Amino acid sequence: MSKGPGLFSDFGKKAKDLLTKDYITDHKLSVSTYSESGVALTTSTVKKGGYSFGDVAAQYIYKNTSADVKIDTESNISVNLIVADIITSSKTIANLKYPNYDSGKLEFQYFHPHASIAAAVGLNQAPPIDFSVTLGTPTFALGIEAGYETSSRKLVKYTAGITVTQPDSCSSIILGDKGDTIKTSYIRYLDQLKKGAAVAEFTRKLSTNENTFTVGGSYALDHLTLVKVKLNNHGTLGTVLQHEVMRKSVVTISSEFDTKALDNIPRFGVSLALGLENIFSKHFAV
User: Fold this and answer.
1) pLDDT in tens, 15-55
2) Is 70 exposed, middle or buried (0-12, 13-18, 19+ CB in 10 A)?
3) Contact assessment for residue 64 and residue 85, using Cβ atoms and an 8 Å cutoff
């Protein structure tokens, strides 16, 4: 576990990642190359429905600084700059976009053994301001998050949460959407090596009495093969099979079924990632 309570954005993240990561349905092809000097170059092509688009991304890491630049086929440019320890135990993040300047922002994060603070401000004439505070320890933490819109001078969001983290489990409760949504999640690792994990997530929207309950899990059959599954109360079943066919070369097969409408065609995704000692890799999804 970390030395502090972490950021508020980390509340429930482990459970969310287990229920969403590797569940793919789009067509995707990406090729990445790396150099020993800290430069990484990635080209990607994605097909969604009848549309295809791509991007080229470059990353450079030097000591406490990393810079990411991405250009896509619609001429959008995104620059992300991260500098650690300008102030001890801090991280500064600047995100710039072209031609949509208004979506850029500047963020500052500060970490303490018993607290963490994150503040972000938009880079425009009437910048939105987001602020979060977390208090506690690596085992128990509570936090709040708020968003203020300077153009309307209104508090547009406020969220509160609590999380409990143990070596073999993690649980959280988050009250969001201005108190209209309650989300609880729990993940438990089934062994010390974390080869297997079970997760449950429950979300209730108070204004509409709408409930979503999702259970899932993952298990490493061996050091090369991982299986994942999830099912929610709406009848959506998702599965993932991931296998390392050779060193740093992984194939992932994902599917999604509507168990309440078996006549519908299931959605499938296949991902192939080829790697050669971190110098070359591919990613393909169908």
Assistant:
1) 999 999 999 888 777 777 777 777 888 878 777 777 788 88
2) middle
3) yes
pLDDT tens readout for residues 132-174: 999 999 999 999 999 999 988 899 999 999 999 999 999 999 9
pLDDT digits (tens, 9 = 90+) for 202-251: 999 999 999 999 999 999 999 999 999 999 999 999 999 999 988 777 88
Please report the DSSP string for 28-82 in residue order: EEEEEEE-TTSEEEEEEEEEETTEEEEEEEEEEEETTEEEEEEEETT--EEEEEE
| Segments in the chain forming alpha helices (H) | 13-20
225-232 and 196-205 strand pairing: unpaired
Query: Cβ distance 269 to 284 under 8 Å?
Result: no
| Burial (Cβ within 10 Å: 0-12, 13-18, ≥19) of residue 45 | middle
> SS3 of 127, please?
coil
| Pair of tokens at residue 124 | 């425009």
